[in-house]
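To: structure subgroup
Subject: Chain for Friday's discussion

All,

I'm putting the inputs and outputs inline so they're searchable in the archive.
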Amino acid sequence: MSAVLGFIVIIVAIIVIVVGFLIYQQESKKFTKTTNYSLVDIWTKPEIKKANYFLEQLDRVEGEHEVLLNVDVPYENTKLHADAVLIHESGIYILTSMYKKGWINGQEHGQSWIEVTHGNKKTEFDNPFFYNLRIMQSMQKLLPDINREIFNNVVVFGGGCSFQNIELVSDNVEVLKLGEVKAWKKTLEGSVLEKSDIDLIYQTLKGYS
């Protein structure tokens, strides 16, 4: 009996140590310091888990950069929400995410996109690039001295969807699946922003995060 009890005590001690290490590790990360969300929040809430993944991946990009999450910028009489903004030496990247499960079809300048699910069921939804474009225009007003050509429009799809037919024509637009963010950030290159520019942009937008 004592041997069994001793074994249970050892197992419990190991679990406590592992959980404690994970909590310590998460609390030292930028996401927790920025948002105050706990490890339990990240494990149990999909939206928070997604935000953590965004920041974790984007903050590992090479080169000078800053990352902001959940940026709400003014637009006419309302606010528009960007899930993340990457301010990188190669440009400013506005990332908005969508949750879809089916096959995605759409054109960059098309008014509507289509999600095709089981049974060939087709559901239209607004072109996500148009929403992002409005966010971009709002940010350009907040940053009038920044060259508009360095702004990039990035839409990230989660939910296990697949791209069936996506047509893009502009150089500053990207459509990705959530799992592709890690590879995408490795493609960023060029230097159009100095560190001082990045710091200034970050401080300007931070108040909207």
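Points worth raising on Friday:
The beta strands are 65-75, 78-88, 91-99, 103-107, 112-117, 121-126, 151-158, 162-167, 173-177.
The mean pLDDT is 84.

D.
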